[in-house]
Amino acid sequence: MKNSSLIPAEIIEQHILLVREQKVILDRDLAELYGVSTKILNQAVKRNKDRFPVDFMFQLTENESRIWIEFKNSRSQFVTLKRGKNMKYRPHAFTEHGILMTSSVLKSKRAVAVNIAIMRTFVRLRQMLSSNKDLDRKLQELEKNMMSNSTLFLRRSVKF
Fold it and tell me: How far apart are the first and last CA of the chain?
């Protein structure tokens, strides 16, 4: 399967969040991408806890969960919590490494294909970020050169 026909990178990018200075996808969104319920995903992870150390997966705090709910509600009028305003379970956040590991515990062809699409999206985002850093560095160098040339020009013009 081609990743573009399975899930477009733009859809995957919409699910990537920055939590605790890490790019993550929450369990609900990851399950949706894999085409399974959140419960199935979390059960598979729970059965294989040893494969998910804290740098692969962590559970959001109550405050992080509240912020996430507010963020989701601000993006869509249709996202509402059932049974009052409290969440029954706080979401799990999967880092890039944790996402890689999930396809091995779900063991489906779709999970592998979706995982490849997600990894390609992460790589593309890293490349874009790197490119932006290179452009920023080059711009700073250019500004520095322009400032030193301007200073040199001003010094010369004062002498004449």
Answer: 71
